[in-house]
Write a structure and sequence with these properties.
Helix content: 40-55%
Strand content: under 5%
Bound molecules: zinc ion
Number of strands: 2
Shape: rod-shaped
Largest sheet: 2 strands, antiparallel
Number of domains: 2
Radius of gyration: 26 Å
Strand order of the largest sheet: 1-2
Number of helices: 3
């Protein structure tokens, strides 16, 4: 039975190490997680699931008024570009307040 008590945590630790590698952990961190899960499975396995970063990193999407060019805005009414965040479009004169409708 002692054999199983060593092998099963070892397999789980191996999976954690490969999972940590996929998520971009450093070599030292991978070894630490491997040993931690293997030796103190009950503590380190839940800890790993709490601390690991999400596989898909959510990046904030640019708002509708921000163009691909950095610091440039697009008028939602006439489509002209302007550099300053002004309350009114300098081309068509319509209000550009984000909350105003
Ligand atoms: Zn405009």
């Amino acid at each position: 039975m002692l054999y199983i008590a060593i092998i099963i945590p070892l397999l789980i630790a191996w999976w954690v190490a490969s999972d940590a590698k996929k998520r971009g952990y450093s070599q030292a961190a991978i070894v630490s997680w491997f040993l931690g899960v293997w030796l103190v499975l009950i503590i380190f396995l839940p800890l790993y699931f709490i601390l690991r970063p999400n596989s898909t990193i959510l990046r904030p999407k640019p708002t509708g008024q921000t163009n691909a060019i950095e610091g440039t805005y697009v008028c939602p009414y006439c489509g002209n570009l302007y550099r300053e965040k002004v309350p009114f479009c300098p081309y068509c004169g319509r209000g550009l307040e984000e909350d105003g409708s």
